[in-house]
Amino acid sequence: MSWKPYNVSHRKAKMNISKPYKRRCQFRATALTAYKRRCQIRIITLTAYKRRCQFRATTLTAYKRRCQFRATTLTAYKRRCQFRATTLTAYKRRCQFRATALTAYKRRCQIRIITLTA
Length: 118
Prior knowledge:
This protein has one helix at residues 6-117. By secondary structure, the protein is mainly alpha-helical.
């Protein structure tokens, strides 16, 4: 019988015990890697979501700007319309003044004709 030191056989036994442990560790490592991948996917998804949110925010801001521009354009249009209305009113007043002046002129002419005829 050959003599074997205690630690050699112990080492073999330790190696046999450690194989399932290694398998569990590998499984844990792969599970952890898969978990990390899922986390990275979540982070990427979250980043994409943030980008979309920022894009929506900038789109909304641009929309608000366009709305404000439309509002100011509409206000300017209203001002022009009011100006046209006041201009038209002034024009009507001048026309009425001309009409009354013409009527007065006609009256004076008629008075002259009557006076001249008499």
